[in-house]
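Q: I'm a student working through a structural biology exercise. My instructor gave each of us a protein and asked us to get a predicted structure, then write a short paragraph describing it. Mine is RidA family protein. I'm not confident about reading structure output yet, so if you can add a plain explanation after the tokens, that would really help. Here is the sequence I was given:
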Amino acid sequence: MRRITTGSTWEPTIGYARAVVAPPFVFVSGTTGTDHATGTIPEGVVEQCALALKIIGAALDKAGAGFADVVKVTYVLPDRADFEPCWPLLAATFGANPPAAMMIEAGLIDPRHRIEIEVTARLPG
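A: Happy to help. First, here is the predicted structure for RidA family protein. I'll explain a few features afterward.
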């Protein structure tokens, strides 16, 4: 088993890894659109979604997987009305390899967060 961290302030504060590689799976923790280098959070949900996907993509890459290997995704949004604006970006990200999915409406750890994304992938090969 291998753990992947990203420098998020939340990881050591709460005590979790961005991703855990437990072959044949990669479990990526719930990820928000927070810039880990600056601590800034974009205002718009689409921008937050794009940044969360970038962070997830980097974790998957470190694990030896990619978005085509994602088998399950969970989206958590405080306001379900914010989900639809993200659909084009999500469809483009998962393309011809859409995973099983679930969307939950719930509060997030910081009220500025408008989306959190968690994925499970299967290592290729």
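A: Here are two points you could use in your paragraph. The chain has one domain: 2-122. Residues 69 and 121 are 5 Å apart (CA to CA). It's a good idea to check both against the output above yourself.
Q: Great, thank you!
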